[in-house]
Amino acid sequence: MNFSWRRARSVALKEYKHILRDPFTLAVTLILPLVFVGMFGFVIDLDYKHMRVYVRDNDQTSVSRRFLQEMASSGYFDLTPVHSPAEADQALEKNGSPALLIIKRGFGRNVRSGNPETPGQIQLLADGTDNVQASIMGTYLQGVIQKANAVFARDNPELSGGAERAPNGGDQIRSRFLFNPELNSRWFIVPALSTIIIGFLAIVLTALTVAKEWENGSMELLLSTPVRPAEIVLGKLVPYFLLTFFDVLVVFVLAVYVFRIPFLGSFLFYMAACWVYITGALALGLVISVVTRQQQAAIQFAFAVGLLPSFIFSGFIFPIENMPAFFQYFTALFPQRWFLLISRTVFLSDAAPMTLATAFGAIGLFAAAMILLAVHKFKTDVEP
Amino acid sequence: MNENDIVISVKNLVVAFGDFHAVDGVSFDVRRGEIFGFLGANGAGKTTTIRTICGILNPSEGSVTVDGKDVSSSTAVLKPRIGYMSQKFTLYPDLSVRENMYFAGSLYGMSPKQIDERARKLMDFIGLPQRIPDPVSHLSGGVKQMVALASSLLHDPELVFLDEPTAGTSPQTRVAFWALIRRLAEMGKTVFVTTHYMDEAEYCGRIALMERGKIVALGTPQKLKEQFFPVKPLEIAFHAPVQNALREALKQAGIESAVFGNHLRVRVSDRAAFERACAPFAGQFSVKEVEPTLEDVFLQAVSGREAK
Amino acid sequence: MPAVRAQVHQVSKKMGRAQALWQVEDVFGAGQVHGIIGPNGAGKTTLIRVLAGLLHPDEGTVSYDEGGTVLSAADVKRVTGYFPQEPSLYPDLTCREHLEFFRDLYDLPQADFERRAEELLHATGMAPFTDRPAGKLSGGMYKKLGLMCVLLNRPKLLLLDEPTIGVDPVSRQELWDLVYGFAGEQMTVIVSTSYMDEAGRCSQVHVLSSGQMLAAGTPEDVMKHFGVTDFAEIFLNHERK
Question: Spelled out in words, what is the top-level CATH class assigned to the domain B3-220?
């Protein structure tokens, strides 16, 4: 008995009917991407704005006032002046996640002097329990300082050789962010959402299918016919592939047309990567289903190998470069990491597809391995 | 029939789920101390009827009274008098027999002392040792059913409803179980039992045969056999391979026959018509009369109904 | 082409901790209707699954032949039809969709399929219900649909695990009529049942109890062997020992 396209097609057709007649699953599949995109695109805004900062200006010069004005107009900070050290202490103790900015006496004089030996000094006290906000505050403050320096230099050309020279004499950090010049977090997150949605949804969808057939008894009947594992695996992949691909297109359209995220790379390459990644994720779901043979166990497995790595090991939340060396290698096992890399790169840069050959190869290898494993592990008897 | 003896009275009961009439116009009375058998296939409406009498489901039409009280309006009064052993859930598999009993008894507000006392009596009654330490899941199917019966009897109900108590148990368990049912009836309890095993119906005082929500026959097993089989069924043995030809000839004459291995079983209402149909095969088979079974009764009752 | 004969040789099989089958030795002759009778837990399902090739014996062998020609495993799969005891159809697919699904699984030509489907729908009286989903069929109709799916392939060995359990007497009668309608020179039928009264409907009875084959033969011979007049007595007596 050889592989029969007809049998594979009939399994696919049957599966397609199951999908159409199960309104709940269908609704979840179609609505979930919208929920994810809505949640990450609109609600969770990783750009910090209007962070409350108490200000104790011990300098009280036109320079310090000018600096505070610059800081307030950036939009990142809401400034509240305090007038005594006691008041400052009180403010720090009373309010949640507060920060205190102290401008030291002599700030204006030092800045005006332009002497690198005696820079203008400011101190930021931030609440380290929210380390993300604290470090972002520091970063943004750097930006404000740079801008203030530039403005000061422009307004007081007699004191410096131009913007090139730091009037406060401190080390000057100059960063230029390529591809996402405004460091817009939406640009960073939305292209990555396909990774999460496929990495989770596709695995769960197929993880249920074979287990369901074991549980409702149809597998026993199926196995008594000439149908072969490869035919069932292929037949089950195709309809869910189309369903998941539809989700990917929805996310793509929302990203490009609603969030106005630039798509600079090769569309065809991106689609090819999607197809391979979807196939791998679906096949992984099938492996889970084939091995567990129970829907409840399958769904737990799917959560463990789908949802968690999608968020944690993909680089979606934690940058991979910041992980310990072991975990950096460990994440390489998860196709989510590679696809996330591909997604972000093709959206925001016009890099040649060849630069992503490793990532593409990795998801391809994963998909092939999973399909083979699903077919290989598929039981053709009802032995426990 | 003495009016005072009637415990359960069901009149024109209809239970509908949407368009589907699970019970479709059913009327019957059950007397005190009777074993009333409710027979029919899965989905015939047996469980739905039981649930309505127990007050778990409300009738869409018609009425159910227990001791003259309408069930749906007096559930609180009636529930303590009813013992119900359901077809699906019986016992918690991870609890021991004793723990299950305590739980069941506590639902009826019994004190631990009362429960202990009753449990001792009931374990004697069902013929099991007093202490079974294992969780229920370790017990065999038969023992499990016995324990489930005991736990439905804890609060000493007058009315006992058993929904397919013997489904999936061994012949020996079934015999033992029916012996218990008979003893319950002798103790004056009214037992209402459903089953899809036709041969078990022989043990019942009266039976109702149910099919697609309707009762197609009602009476004592003996009465029903007489009613539906004024002429006894025939069993035909063959001396020559004329089985198929004879079946065909009988079919032409409108006579139902069923293959039983090497025999044919024939339900006839008109013996003369049968003789005529078989005449061409004379000498190639022999005929003997056999006792009708309740299965024959059911087939006859349903085919009669369909003919109408 | 004659029907298939199955020969079970010293088959033992453990399911979990229970010895489901123990040294079963039996022959299921071609073209007959065989009934495997026994109470729940006797090993009927295990034996049927072993015969269907869905379980592999721990010890012993099962061989199949067609008029003396031994069949390979692939051939057996091709000519065997099996319908399990547990519900195994897709509740959301209609009768017609089930038939079409099995047509493709069995790779049947459309012309053959149409002819056979027509014939089966007529014989089962299911023609008016072709558009009804399997989940909405009564117990009897559900079993008939399952039987139709399996019979589409014209199996030479038909294995039915408790086809009549929980089915009303009318549908039970119809199922047996169907079985006898298709059995014969073309098909061997092996049916398991826990209804002792159904044993008499088979041409050969195989008595299974606690995994052991106690006796096999015509219903009359088997009853004579145990000295009983009723099959239920066999198990009552046997269990008492």
Answer: alpha beta
